[in-house]
Amino acid sequence: MSDQDLRGRPVDALTPEEAATELEALAKEIAGHDIAYHQHDAPTVSDAEYDALRRRNAELETLYPELIRPDSPSAKVGAAPAGGFRKIRHAIPMLSLGNAFTPEDVHDFLSSVRSFIKELRDDPERPVAIMAEPKIDGLSCSLRYEKGRFVQAATRGDGSEGEDVTANVKTIKDVPQRLNGDAPDILEIRGEVYMDRSDFAALNARRAEAGEPIFANPRNSAAGSLRQLDPSITASRPLRFFGYTWGEVSEPLGKTIVDIRKRFSGWGFRLNEPSRLCHSAEELLAYYDEIGAMRSSLPFDIDGVVYKVDRLDWQERLGFVSRAPRWATAHKFKAEQAQTVLKAIDIQVGRTGSLTPVARLEPITVGGVVVSNATLHNEDEIKRKDVRIGDTVVVQRAGDVIPQIVQVILERRPEGTVEYVFPDHCPECGSLAVREEGGAIRRCTGGLICPAQAVERLRHFVSRNAFDIEGLGDKHIRAFHADGLIRTPGDIFRLEEKDKASLTPLRNREGWGPKSAQKLFEAIETRRTIPLDRAIYALGIRQVGEATAKLLARHYGSFAAWRAGMEAAQDRDSEAWRDLTAIDQIGPSVADDLLAFFAEEHNRTVLDDLAAQLTVQDFVRSRATSSAVAGKTVVFTGTLETMTRPEAKARAEALGAKVAGSVSGKTDYLVVGADAGSKAAKARELGVTTLTEPEWIELIGGAGA
Ligand code: IVH
Fold it and tell me: Of all protein residues, whose CA lies closest to atom 22 belonging to ligand 1?
């Protein structure tokens, strides 16, 4: 019987001999398709056919575990479905939203808008229109239309790069294939793919009936349904879509959100309703309460509401802070709570040695998700709440955040419990764990002799916003560290070389094959060149998150300049120290952590090693290397006429300038508004160029720059 005849028969109709032949054929075939897809970027079969082959392979392996081949396609890490979608770079990044939890946060949001836009700051009576909309709990997706035709859909991914889910989104009935009426030639509609609660319940009932695993909640169900390699599976799932914002467009869509929502609707999109145009914090809070009250009767899950400044020209001026707009915020609903029993407290050791207590719970469903772990934050929190093993506790879960223990139900405390004693030694390496003065966190003093810290640092190093090495997951880092294959970041870039010399090369290890090993080496190779801010962030220096890493990259420009600056700044009387602490938003505490990192011999060795392995790209200033103020250091003083200080600062930075808080020898321009104080005198003394506000505006190319 030929292989082709075997292929036509159901798996359970094959004899063991035939199954073995079929498994061999499948392994060969799938490997061939993998090479065509991953290495030549030229798939030889459709995703659906490929998926069917893999499914058949998996079914046969379930029936005949003894026939599983060493080169089984199922054993390959990073293969479908995670690796099955093509990546799409977003022309305009898909960002997230800041959060508000309390009425006070909402007032703060509005005041920050008012104090940014001068017209609003100067006229406290002038109302500002804010669009309020439900915040649907699904997955965001960007749909691209060209000349009114749907051409592509991408998931959010990390915000810069998502996955190509075009074939799947095509099956969603709410997504128009052609737009009604007049649409710009290029139009990206962004919104949420989600599932109605009733559809979700029916789907789960069908799955339970068929003996298939059920989804935890509508959001997971929508995510699982969208990320199917076989679009016919997606088509069978009741997915829906709301449009609420946009990405790349070839012409402006309107002047306000109100206008644009009308256009969305005219093109054939459903809108997230009930929305309301509000004009004060009181109106926003009333809307929040009303939506909260109808939450359980809405057909879909929401986790809050979103507030957006209605005027687009103001949105543009307000701009963004790191990954979230200043012109919008998400007002979240109160978390869902449930009661359960605390079975144990485990201590986890983090990247910087912090000991974090984790509560192990009797599993309980909170807001549709099964929770069995929760954070207890730190030693003081446990004390303050007097949490004891055996206690019944209130667990809460809000959105994506880690579940928390809110309180203990004292009436239900069993006899004989004892107060929890926080360990003063690291549970991983036995080193002393100490609290710094005034701090709440106890840290392991073992540094890199502590395997937990070393592994956490490596995990951070390869994580998504750092080196982003695909295929090098937690499990692998842990195993490579234990085997001594990867001990420092530099070792990652020697992995292939070491592997060649190894008696047990990766390809022969469990869970690996020649292809997955090769894929990992390739993923590592592509990251040998890395932008400066990512490289800084990846080092995992305390308090140096993405935003701070960017500030440092912008300020120093190159890896070498940054290092030289940090080493020179060890002397706190130096110009280098003043230069570092003059960077706006870098306070003495962050500076201390940076210097502490550089003071350690071990860290300097790691940096030398990395410098030899990598090409760290100099910081590229956005839209701005060409601007007249790119790379210049500017100080603002006095009251400006045409804009507020936050807006002046944001605009200068968008043009590649650095804004400092005080005048020094490094200052290029001092921009002087009305009632300027001592800074003007200091600038004169140091010979710094002083500009009036109109001169500054002219220098940056006009008011609209
Ligand atoms: S506007 C710059 N409006 O919430 C980002 N987002 O937490 C503009 N979301 O990534 C987003 N409902 O996936 C916007 N009415 C709504 C939304 C909404 C849900 C999601 C979206 C976003 C996430 C941020």
Answer: 96
Nearest CA to ligand 1 atom 14: 244
Question: For residue 356, is it within any domain?
Answer: yes
User: Is 76 contained in some domain?
Assistant: no
- Report yes or no on 87 lying in a domain: no
Both 219 and 138 in one domain: the answer is yes
- Residue 578 C-alpha from the chain's centroid: 33
Q: Is the CB of 304 under 6 A from ligand 1?
A: no
Active site residue 135: yes
Could you tell me if the CB of 95 is within 6 A of ligand 1? yes
CB 325 near ligand 1, within 6 Å: yes
Range of the domain at 671: 633-700
How far is 286 from 305, CA to CA, in rounded Å?
12
390: amino acid identity, one letter: G
- Quick check: bond before 274 cis, omega within 30? yes
434 and 462 inside one domain: no
Mean pLDDT, contiguous 10-residue spans, the chain (705 residues): 71 86 89 67 69 80 74 52 74 91 95 94 94 94 96 91 92 94 94 94 84 79 88 91 96 96 96 96 97 88 95 94 89 87 95 92 82 88 93 81 86 94 94 86 88 93 92 90 91 93 86 90 94 95 90 93 95 92 86 92 92 91 68 90 88 86 89 86 89 90 63
What's the structural domain count of the chain? 6
Counting ligand 1 atoms within 8 A of each CB, the residue from 142, 244, 284 with the most, and so the one to mutate, is 244
Token pair for 519: 């894929």
In a domain, 74, yes or no: no
The model's pTM is 0.61
Task: Give the CATH number for residue 510.
Answer: 1.10.150.20
Hey, is 634 helix, strand or coil?
A: strand
